[in-house]
Amino acid sequence: MHRARQGGQEDGSAQEEVSLYGGRDGKALRLVPSVVLYVDVLGVRQMARRRPATNLRRFGKAISRSYRDFGFKKSPWPSASFSDMLVLCSPLSPENDEKSAISGLVFQAAYLQSALSESGFFLRGGLTLGKFHISDEVIFGPALVDAVEIEEKVAVSPRIVLSKHADSIMKGSGDGLATDSSAHSLLLRDGDGHAFVNHLALLFDDPSDPLPALESHRAIVMKCLDDHRKEKRHWEKYRWAAEYHNSVVASAMPDATQLLVPQDTMTWQFDPFA
Amino acid sequence: MPLIDPQSLDSGTPRTADGSRSYPDHLRPYEAFDDRLLHLLSEIQPATFDELSVRVEDPKVRAVLVRWLASAEWRGLIERRGPTRTSPRSYVLSERGHEQVQAA
């Protein structure tokens, strides 16, 4: 049913970590304390119903381009994917403590969100800690259940939210994620108190000009707002994306007002009573 | 055209070739990993992020590899190749990076 990747089985330093889960060479399947990232690509169900052939090509291209960059066979982050869902994990060990594992997966999440948003897709997900198992046969465990629940019930908008436990571990700990500047911090805190992955921060690490990527992100957000202007529930998700975009632009490039999503685009239009 | 102004590389705060942006301060802590990661990259280059990450033994270093790559690129120690339609972006040591590895 799913495509699972357990890295480092042939060579490389990740071998020890991924073999912790067992399930190969007759070894018993094991639940291992892990950090788990679960993400869902928004809008794929609708795409499958509307113009499925065209959308299949578009989705397939975006997914293969994004997954090739990080979910490769020997990746130290074992992963599994099914349709529009992806699970990545980082098993804890004496060398890979909770902070390192969370940091690594936050970077992975940010990278994946950036890559897919360039192709017009938005991600929603959860990042948790707990017992987890992944092998060629099965993915299982309370950490996965928690991550799915965060994705379905807490995230709501296209954001990847940290569980309260992960949040508390990272609070006050830089570990490469948080910085004094919100534009550069890989984690932000939303108005509802939840910490989420600030994927646009990666643009400002890079010596390449962030302007084209921000222009592209703005255009994609505006297109999604326009496409869903008759579907309030979906539209609200992209309004959040517009607010997030504007917040990052205002913080990192306050003079670049041309990069902001216009307020009228972010305002819901009510229909007359008829 | 290079991304970084070559004349700014020895200044401690490299700038982009067009002068519009300078080396972000929050990337400075990752300079501590130069010796280890430049040496590793020299052994397997060209390498994608994933190809490099699987060779990094310390999960703590692996966790921040994304930011070390950005830091090293700003300082002209590594250069990017691609991405192309069939392969992701990869990295190689620059001449400056080679010199640093040899000097270590």
Molecular structure report:
The complex is a heterodimer of chains A (274) and B (104). Chain A is an alpha+beta fold and 274 residues long. Chain A has two domains: 189 residues, Alpha-Beta Plaits (2-Layer Sandwich); 62 residues, no CATH class. In chain A, helix 8 runs antiparallel to helix 9. The longest helix of chain A is centred in the middle third of the chain and has 21 residues. The radius of gyration of chain A is 19 Å and the shape is globular. The relative contact order of chain A is 0.13. About 3% of the residues of chain A have low confidence. Chain B is of the alpha+beta class. Chain B has a single domain, classed as Winged helix-like DNA-binding domain superfamily/Winged helix DNA-binding domain (Arc Repressor Mutant, subunit A), CATH 1.10.10.10. Chain B has five helices and three strands; from the N terminus they run αβαααββα. In chain B, strands 1-3-2 form a three-stranded antiparallel β-sheet. The termini of chain B are far apart. Chains A and B meet through helix 4 and helix 7 of A and helix 2, helix 3 and helix 4 of B.
CATH architecture of the largest domain in chain A: 2-Layer Sandwich
Tell me which oligomeric state these chains represent: heterodimer
Q: What is the CA-based Rg of chain B, rounded?
A: 13 Å
What count of structural domains of chain B? 1
Q: What is the tally of helical segments of chain A?
A: 9
Specify the biggest β-sheet of chain B: 3 strands, antiparallel
Helix content of chain A: 40-55%
Distance between the termini of chain B: 29 Å
Radius of gyration of chain A: 19 Å
Computed structural class of chain A: alpha+beta
Largest interface: A-B, 38 and 36 residues
CATH homologous superfamily label of the largest domain in chain A: Nucleotide cyclase, GGDEF domain
